[in-house]
Amino acid sequence: MFDLEIPAPAKWCWPTFVVPGQNIKEAIASMPGQYRYSPDQLVKAVEKVVKQGIGSVLLFGQTDGHKDNGGSQAWNDHGAVQQAVRLLKQAFPQLTIITDVCLCAYTDHGHCAPLCADGSLDNDAACECLAKVALSHAAAGADIVAPSAMMDGQIAVIREALSENDFKQTLLMAYSTKFASACYGPFRDAEGSAPQLRPGMPADRKGYQASYANPRNAIMESVLDEAEGADILMVKPALFYLDMIQTLRQRTLLPVAAYNVSGEYSMLIATARQGWGDLDELVRESTMGIVRAGADLIISYWASEYERFFGKA
Ligand SMILES: [Zn+2]
Q1: What are the φ/ψ torsions at residue 125 (nearest 5 degrees)?
Q2: How far is ligand 1, taken at its centre, from the CA of residue 111, in Å?
Q3: What's the gap between Cα 32 and its chain centre?
Q4: Every domain of the chain and the residues it spans
Q5: Which architecture, in CATH terms, is 10-196+209-310?
Q6: Which residues are catalytic?
Q7: How far is the CA of 102 from the centre of ligand 1 (A)?
Q8: Is the confidence at residue 313, as pLDDT, over 60?
Q9: If you average pLDDT over residues 34-54, what whole number do you get?
Q10: Residues whose CB falls within 8 Å of the CB of residue 178, separated by 6 or more in sequence, listed in order
Q11: CA dist list (Å): 109 to 19, 48, 100, 104
């Protein structure tokens, strides 16, 4: 009777991938069981997730349009994410729809911000671009926008843009404590968003994502995002950073989301496939770790298989 319980599916969020087109359901090789969907096929996949009681989805988009320095296709009102949000809102009015707000899947260099002529990141221009993305998602019907670019000041700029444009009900979930992690490999495969190597350009995202060796600074990022007006904070990844979830839970009164990322998902599957562990047990045990740490919202690819791993709600 004193055991902790895995949260009900309503406290879970399923992250998934939207691509332009129709009739597309493309397996992601490095994330077995997860797919890229065109908006029409996403509706079918989300139906299965909604039937299990999952409370929210988090959408990551892609474009088949022209990629440019500023990632302008990210705020195309007819983009795959914007279309998907409209379809999902119509089909599942109760579902909370969260959209990732970033530029890296839309820039021709794969960074989360436009680059200046000298190859450095243009932080302020990025914030303006991110605000346009957030507005186009909110206009399509997103309940929560989730900026993930880790640009300084992005939460304040987006908050202001939302309220100026009368999206006062739209919530802001900040990827507030997001580490430069080796656990994002399968995700970048899914999104085609690995930063490209070019002379003068940063080769990775360590310049704007938090260092795993500096936990106080990583928590400070969340504190700043809260001050800028975030409604929900996040720690990403989850399993390698359970201490950060616990610290942040104690530091803030806002809800704390934990993002159990692609690498954490795929490594359990790989272990099980090798015969080195039982997948169901691994998933349950690792998820309980996230619960013990104090996460209020679990963002996890396992959400699409909630019934299999955690039984019926
Ligand atoms: Zn990004």
Answers
A1: -65, -35
A2: 6
A3: 18
A4: 10-196+209-310
A5: Alpha-Beta Barrel (3.20)
A6: 178, 236
A7: 5
A8: no
A9: 98
A10: 148, 150, 209, 210, 221, 234, 235, 236
A11: 19, 36, 19, 8
